[in-house]
Amino acid sequence: MERTLGIIKPNAVRKNVTGKILAMWEDAGFRIAGLKKVQLTKAAAGGFYKEHEGKFFYEELVNFMTSGPVVLVALERENAIAENRRLMGATNPEKADAGTIRKVYGDSYTENSVHGSDSPESAARELGYFFNVFETL
């Protein structure tokens, strides 16, 4: 089994589609190993996206991710990272395949409804950033 982080972003939470996105993950065979709704501070969002600090989109990204609550999800299944990337679809919802989370619920390239880890290393870092050992089963 492999774990990955999923984040339901503020635009999707505002649209009240959290349950529908969670259902898409479960219907695709993911087990929800951890789940919490939080309001990220600028410091927390900035720390999470630290690798992008100094890039042209960093401030806009931090502002967006702190514009409302997010739902943090520890997802588990075989090949979780690759399968979640496939289910999320392309970053740009206009280019995402039909039936993917971003195609269905994304609003734009930056407000694309969900985040997912892109490698085993980032999954370990991201899960550890938001979940402690007592918060995932």
Description:
This protein has helices spanning 10-14, 18-27, 42-48, 58-65, 80-88, 101-105, 120-130, and strands at residues 2-8, 31-38, 70-77, 114-116. By secondary structure, it is of the alpha+beta class. A 4-stranded antiparallel sheet has the order 2-3-1-4, sandwiched between helices. It has 7 helices and 4 strands, in the order E-H-H-E-H-H-E-H-H-E-H. Helices cover 40% and strands 19% of the residues. The model has no long low-confidence stretch (mean pLDDT 96).
How do the strands and helices of this protein lay out in sequence?
Blueprint: E1 2-8, H1 10-14, H2 18-27, E2 31-38, H3 42-48, H4 58-65, E3 70-77, H5 80-88, H6 101-105, E4 114-116, H7 120-130
CATH class: Alpha Beta
* CATH homologous superfamily descriptor: Nucleoside diphosphate kinase-like domain
Which outline best applies? globular
Structural domain tally: 1
What characterizes the major β-sheet? 4 strands, antiparallel
Which descriptors would you attach to this protein?
alpha+beta; globular; 137 residues; single chain; Alpha-Beta Plaits; four-stranded antiparallel sheet; 40% helix
